[in-house]
């Protein structure tokens, strides 16, 4: 295949990130290199330590661990059987242990991490724990790996905050080689446009709860990842772009023999790249995650029209590795990255259709051909750089192998070459406005809906918006402002419950938009939404100065948001009406809210960690 020299803008953005991150990245690398192992991790343990670590192992594994000659792989799993995406992980430890023994390695479940389903908590109080669950997962992963008996690690996770949380921890234990192991999407169910239509009908009172429940159950109906292109599937795309999966592993179905073979291959590859196999083989995560792989993940996000939640997660992951990225980098990359995919919410098709059309292998091959990604990166797949991920896995009888990705898309309504894209750019804009700094995703917004100038209707909760809608107060051109929804206010819950309302108002012919210091769902995008606005209202951001009736003028294409009257900044900022944050465990996360950084830095609790200042 043809690999074109890297685009000048990609090179410039990467160099800017490198220079911006020089101090913190150098400190991080010094920390990682200081932890570089010289022998088996278990060799550092006392006899008592090692006896505890191996006490419950089968006799063969126990002998191997006590001998300290085989690499030992730690499994960090987000298994639970409520999340459809994670239910298949129940059987993975047995698969992994058996695969490890075949290549002279052992494997142990180092620990489990919490894994919440945003689909269950959407619109519920539990959603206020969602973003902070990412940092909780990172902390739990660190506890799991703190036993320091591992020579490599496998990370079992898929969904919204789970992969970012696992990766933050993996980066902080970056001297360990690590591979992320997905489980694949559920079979396609009710077509996404039909699901959206019934949601809007329910919001309008045209159908009852029975019709809504039937549609939702037909959409989410089996084990596997939800098939729309939200945050969970955007995460899987990113793991491929960063070189942390076995090539092509992202969207293989859970129940297939190919999926089992990929899990076995990930296990055996983790053993093969441990330091116990020699310096030439040793591939720690701190060499995989660098400025180039972070840029590649942003390119992938833009080329696929991925979730805006990753405008929070990528900066948080990068900062854990001492790399400083901001939304200006995202916007500059988006401007030269064509949108090559049309997956719901950007179109009617789902990730199974995307995978069948050519999937990640075709996408990465096209991006390499366009010079839009760095090829000379370190990946868990070994030599060949990112080009290895322009391949797709296949079974030849009972043997796993890889072949070149298709040269042509099998369905250009879903996946196109870079020479004939869906849109000329990635559709993410930075909004640096008098109200604050936020982002907007326009790839799923029709051209005629991208400019809105209308009076503001200001709320402090999505419940208040719903009440106003039911009372008929929003049947007009309106910019809905929802504030006190940032990380410090209430953990920055997704405001997914507003999607049917704004979509319905827009369908009625009204000009509508949303401006918020909160988040929207990774699957939203039909209407224009300026999100993640910072500083947030609770921190005194100017979004707290907006009043009902102010004229807000949004031009999503130009990336501008204007406010009239211009002197609104001289007002006394509004105060939060209700403190909230108590009940359902929310009070336990008060320390997280108090410590949370601005959204552009990831909205998390870690910041630049010790050793990176």
Automatic annotation (TrEMBL):
The protein's superkingdom reads: Bacteria
Q: Name one GO molecular function term.
A: phosphogluconate dehydratase activity
E.C. no: 4.2.1.12
What PROSITE patterns does UniProt report for this protein, alphabetically? Answer: ILVD_EDD_1 (PS00886), ILVD_EDD_2 (PS00887)
Q: Which UniProt keywords apply?
A: 4Fe-4S, Carbohydrate metabolism, Gluconate utilization, Iron, Iron-sulfur, Lyase, Metal-binding
- Cofactor requirement: [4Fe-4S] cluster
Ranges for domain Dihydroxy-acid/6-phosphogluconate dehydratase C-terminal = 413-602
Domain (Dihydroxy-acid/6-phosphogluconate dehydratase N-terminal): residue spans on this chain: 71-383
Q: Where is [4Fe-4S] cluster annotated to bind?
A: 159, 226
Protein's pathway: Carbohydrate metabolism; Entner-Doudoroff pathway
Q: How is the cofactor bound?
A: Binds 1 [4Fe-4S] cluster.
Alphabetized InterPro entries for the sequence: 6-phosphgluc_deHydtase (IPR004786), Dihydro-acid_dehy_C (IPR042096), DiOHA_6PGluconate_deHydtase_CS (IPR020558), ILV_EDD_C (IPR056740), ILV_EDD_N (IPR000581), IlvD/EDD_N (IPR037237)
Would you indicate the residue range of the signal peptide? none
Reactions it catalyzes: 6-phospho-D-gluconate = 2-dehydro-3-deoxy-6-phospho-D-gluconate + H2O
Q: Which family does it belong to?
A: Belongs to the IlvD/Edd family.
Q: What does this protein do?
A: Catalyzes the dehydration of 6-phospho-D-gluconate to 2-dehydro-3-deoxy-6-phospho-D-gluconate.
* Name of protein: Phosphogluconate dehydratase
Q: Which organism is it from?
A: Hirschia litorea
């Amino acid at each position: 295949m043809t690999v074109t020299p890297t685009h000048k803008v990609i090179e410039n953005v990467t160099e800017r990130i490198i220079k911006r991150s020089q101090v913190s990245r150098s400190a991080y690398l010094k920390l990682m290199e200081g932890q570089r192992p010289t022998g088996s991790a278990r060799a550092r343990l006392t006899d008592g330590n090692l006896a505890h670590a191996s006490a419950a192992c089968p006799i063969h594994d126990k002998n191997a661990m006590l001998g300290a000659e085989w690499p030992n792989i730690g499994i960090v799993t987000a298994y639970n059987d409520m999340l459809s995406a994670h239910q298949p992980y129940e059987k993975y430890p047995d698969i992994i242990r058996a695969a490890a023994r075949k290549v002279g390695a052992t494997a142990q479940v180092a620990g489990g991490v919490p894994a919440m389903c945003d689909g269950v908590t959407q619109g519920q109080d539990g959603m206020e724990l969602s973003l902070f669950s990412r940092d909780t997962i990172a902390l739990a992963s660190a506890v799991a790996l703190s036993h320091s008996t591992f020579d490599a690690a496998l990370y079992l996770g898929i969904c919204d905050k789970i992969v970012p949380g696992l990766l933050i921890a993996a980066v902080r234990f970056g001297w360990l080689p690590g591979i992320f192991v997905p489980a694949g999407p559920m079979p396609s169910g009710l077509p996404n446009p039909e699901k959206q239509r019934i949601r809007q009908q329910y919001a309008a009172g045209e159908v009852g709860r029975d019709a809504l429940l039937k549609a939702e159950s037909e959409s989410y109906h089996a084990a596997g990842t939800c098939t729309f292109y939200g945050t969970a599937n955007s995460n899987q795309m990113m793991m491929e772009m960063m070189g942390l999966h076995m090539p092509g592993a992202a969207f293989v179905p859970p129940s297939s023999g190919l999926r089992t073979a990929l899990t076995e291959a990930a296990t055996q590859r983790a053993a093969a790249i441990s330091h116990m196999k020699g310096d030439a083989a040793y591939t720690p995560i701190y060499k995989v995650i660098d400025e180039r792989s972070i840029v590649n993940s942003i390119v992938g996000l833009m080329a696929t029209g991925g979730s805006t939640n990753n405008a929070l997660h990528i900066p948080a992951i990068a900062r854990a590795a001492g790399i400083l990225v901001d939304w200006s980098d995202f916007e500059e990359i988006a401007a030269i990255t064509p949108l090559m995919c049309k997956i719901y919410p950007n179109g009617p098709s789902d990730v199974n259709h995307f995978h069948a059309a050519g999937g990640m292998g075709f996408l990465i091959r096209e991006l390499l051909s366009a010079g839009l990604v760095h090829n000379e990166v370190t990946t868990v797949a070994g030599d060949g750089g990112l080009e290895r991920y322009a391949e797709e896995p296949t079974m030849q009888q009972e043997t796993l192998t890889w072949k070149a990705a298709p040269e042509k898309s099998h369905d250009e309504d879903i996946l196109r070459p870079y020479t004939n894209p869906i849109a000329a750019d990635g559709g993410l804009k930075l909004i640096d406005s008098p109200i604050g700094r936020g982002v907007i995703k326009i790839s799923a917004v029709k051209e005629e809906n991208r400019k809105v100038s209308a009076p503001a209707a200001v709320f402090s909760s999505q419940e208040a918006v719903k009440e106003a809608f039911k009372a008929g107060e929003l049947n007009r051109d309106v910019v809905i402002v929802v504030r006190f929804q940032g990380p410090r206010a209430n953990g920055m819950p997704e405001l997914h419950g507003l999607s049917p309302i704004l979509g319905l108002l827009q369908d009625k012919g009204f000009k509508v938009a949303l401006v918020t210091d909160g988040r929207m769902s990774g699957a939203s995008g039909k209407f224009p939404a300026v999100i993640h606005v910072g500083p947030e209202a609770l921190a005194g951001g100017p979004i707290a100065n907006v009043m009902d009736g102010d004229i807000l003028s949004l031009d999503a294409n130009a990336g501008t948001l204007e406010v009239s009257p211009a002197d609104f900044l001289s007002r006394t900022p509004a105060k939060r009406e209700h403190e909230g944050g108590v009940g359902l465990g929310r009070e336990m996360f008060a320390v997280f809210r108090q410590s949370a950084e601005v959204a552009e830095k990831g909205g998390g609790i870690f910041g630049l960690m010790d050793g990176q200042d």
